[in-house]
Specification:
By secondary structure, this protein is of the alpha+beta class. It has helices at 34-37, 84-90, 93-96, 135-141, 148-151, 159-174, 178-191, 196-205; strands at residues 16-21, 25-29, 47-51, 57-69, 99-111, 114-116, 129-132. The chain contains eight helices and seven strands; from the N terminus they run E-E-H-E-E-H-H-E-E-E-H-H-H-H-H. The longest helix is centred in the last third of the chain and has 16 residues, at 159-174. The two termini are 26 Å apart.
Length: 210
């Protein structure tokens, strides 16, 4: 979490650390395998907050990919023919060699207590800490749907799947009613007014799901 009173970050609550970034995207990595730390991988379409003690910005991103594996080609995992419990018991070092990489699309930022739904003036810094966004942050960020335009042309994953997952995540995490989904659908209809088939497919996808 971010301590608003001091502006300092609590590294113990971070789920990842920034490895590289641009104005539009961020790549972060867990410091050790999440099974060792007891953490759950960020969900596709979930919201992240990137904070730094050296900046007055809190940058928001949406998870568009999660990659689990070895950090390099030397420590490539091999099929062991063992259950996960057996691996933990007999080969626990294997998990310490694994890393989880989180890829996020930047959708806004907070400065001086004001949340903006456009790209920040500069990208996150390498080694900045990454946190799950709080309910309050997600609620504030999704008061309108301008940020959806930033997700519309993601090319590394199916953009429509990401849009739908992000809308569902925002609705479920904040406990909003289905009216939120209706408002999101109306915004999508404006963005995709010339592509009825794509719009119809997206509207089906944003229905509540587990």
């Amino acid at each position: 979490m971010v301590e608003k009173a001091t502006g300092k970050t609590d590294a113990r609550a971070a789920i990842a650390e920034v490895l590289s970034s641009t104005i539009t995207t961020v790549i972060a990595q867990t410091s050790t395998h999440d099974e060792i730390r007891g953490q759950v991988k960020p969900r596709f379409g979930s919201f992240l907050t990137i904070a730094s003690d050296d900046s007055d910005l809190r940058i928001f991103a949406v998870v568009y990919n999660v990659i689990a594996g070895a950090p390099d080609s030397v420590h490539k995992p091999l099929a062991m023919g063992m259950t996960r419990d057996q691996l933990r018991s007999e080969q626990p070092h294997i998990f310490s060699l694994l890393r989880t990489e989180v890829h996020g699309a930047i959708v806004g930022y907070e400065k001086n207590g004001i949340v903006y739904q456009h790209l920040p003036p500069h990208p996150p810094d390498v080694h900045d800490f990454v946190f799950p966004s709080t309910i309050e942050q997600i609620t504030e960020l999704t008061q309108s749907f301008d940020f959806l335009r930033l997700l519309l042309h993601i090319s590394s994953v199916p953009a429509d799947e990401l849009l739908a997952a992000t809308i569902r995540e925002a609705q479920q995490t904040t406990g909003r009613s289905e009216q939120f989904l209706i408002a999101a659908g109306q915004s999508l209809s404006q963005l995709l007014q010339n592509d009825y088939d794509r719009l119809l497919s997206l509207l089906r996808k944003i229905r509540p799901s587990c």
